[in-house]
Amino acid sequence: MDKFIVAIVSFLITLLLTPLAIKLAKAHNWVDLPNERKIHTVPMPRIGGVGIFLGIIAGLLVTYYYYHLNWILWMVAISTLISLMGFIDDVKGLSFKVKFLVQIIGAVLAIWLVGVNIPFITNPFTHAKISFEIFGPLISVIWIVGITNAINLSDGLDGLAAGLSAISALTLAATSAKTEMAVALVALAVFASAIGFLRYNFHPAKTFMGDTGSQLLGFMLAILAIKGSSLSASTLSLAIPLLAIGIPILDTTYAFIRRMVRKGNPFLPDKMHIHHQLLSIGFSHVGAVLFMYAVSGTLATIAIVYRGKHELTLLASYSIIAIALLAFLKVMRVRSYKRNGGRENGKNAKG
């Protein structure tokens, strides 16, 4: 019963309070303006993530009511820090360096106060431990900061980041329920909040989540992936977090490598993310989002079905699907380019 209460509370809080965030954004002109890199064509309220934040915080507090674990209260405090940073960026603007610093501080606090750490991983071939020793905290910080930004980068189409985050959170809830029920409940809170927000964010969107929401969703998923990755006291799954957050991880890694190969700044945005490429080959806005939901849902199903049974199967499945997706995009882009007489599809050129 506690699972349903956490989910219902988080869902209703986000569903009911997001409209207030929309009104607040319009009253103060906190809107996202169109430009040559963005898909939307009209100013859009950009602090809808306040609703997500309040829903997740409510879910954390309900979970604490049931389990009385101190790390949950620390998550309330650290989540507030991350969302506050995102909110300030949404309404005033912050430099990348400042945001990066706050993310690192949040990650360090999570390691220290929440007990989020990757001391080792389990070798999928021999099942032996691969210890990180003193480098465990550093690897944990890199993971948390990386996933936080991966979800932020996926926020490029109406409903995309919220939907992918919901799928990821539900996957982590399902895979951690047998070993870490408190983690599963927090993951359900993230899932329910993301679903509640989709009421206002699915195409055509009434609001964007902004960094207030995307930074928090990424931060929460990164932490839940670590805390829920235990298969036993001596076994940590490498594959479960990879598949649960598979599409954002693939998109961010692909973007980073692509920009490095082209000798560009890997941190500068472009219009070559997976969702941009889907638009360029002819997918509609909704079609591109649903396609990415489907791929993410496939990875999630594999993670849930094979959890703890065949780690190599999980890793191989992710690799095959990732390669197939990138190959599909490459082939379709070439065909689209030739079909349009050597010009990119106009859908990708929209601001």
Annotation field: number of helices:
13
Residue share in β-strands = under 5%
Rg from alpha-carbon coordinates: 20 Å
- How would you state the average pLDDT, rounded? 91
**Helix and strand sequence:** HEEHHHEEHHHHEEHHHHH
* Helical residues, percent: 55-70%
Order of strands across the biggest sheet?
1-2
Q: SS-based structural class? A: mainly alpha
How is the biggest beta sheet arranged? 2 strands, antiparallel
The end-to-end span amounts to 46 Å
Q: Unreliable stretches, pLDDT < 50, 5 or more residues?
A: 346-351
The total tally of domains equals 1
Number of strands: 6
> What general outline do the C-alpha atoms trace?
globular
Description:
With 351 residues, the protein is mainly alpha-helical. It has one domain (2-349). The protein is built from 13 helices and six strands. The chain has helices spanning 2-28, 49-67, 70-91, 96-114, 136-153, 160-176, 181-201, 210-227, 239-244, 246-261, 274-280, 285-306, 311-339, and strands at residues 31-32, 44-45, 120-122, 129-131, 230-232, 235-236. The strands form three sheets. It has a two-stranded antiparallel sheet with strand order 1-2. Helix 7 (181-201) runs antiparallel to helix 8 (210-227). The longest helix is centred in the last third of the chain and has 29 residues, at 311-339. The termini are far apart. The model is unreliable at 346-351 (pLDDT under 50).
